[in-house]
Write a structure and sequence with these properties.
Layout: H1 2-31, H2 41-56, H3 64-114
Helix pairs in contact: 1-2, 2-3
Length: 120
């Protein structure tokens, strides 16, 4: 009798844990597309679409295979956003370096034109 009670309790604990994991996954699916930089709105839309489709498969109590697939999709989307954001930031940094270099050269040019030699 005790072992049946213990199994029921464990089953209820597993169900509660699954609900919390599903909740965490759903929160991730809502937050992850927002992490994509505005430079790539297509990626954000694609990410949102794929994650929402996976979340729909997690209704009720899906098999482990479905849960694993949803996790893999989330990781794939996370990596895509990471690489996209990194490329956008590197591109922005390169552009800023070009602007700073151009401004520095312009300032040097102005300094050269503005210097007056005084007779000794």
């Amino acid at each position: 009798m005790i072992s049946i009670f213990k199994q029921i309790e464990q089953s209820e604990n597993l169900q509660a844990a699954f609900r919390e994991l599903r909740k965490a996954y759903l929160e991730l699916t809502r937050a992850l597309p927002k992490a994509a930089l505005p430079a790539n709105p297509e990626l954000s839309a694609q990410c949102k679409e794929q994650l929402e489709a996976q979340a729909a498969h997690l209704e009720d109590t899906p098999p482990a295979k479905t849960i694993d697939a949803a996790g893999k999709v989330a990781l794939t989307q996370f990596e895509a956003i990471y690489h996209s954001n990194r490329a956008a930031l590197e591109e922005r940094d390169a552009a800023l370096k070009d602007v700073v270099t151009s401004v520095a050269e312009a300032i040097s040019g102005f300094k050269g034109h503005g210097s007056v030699t005084r007779p000794t």
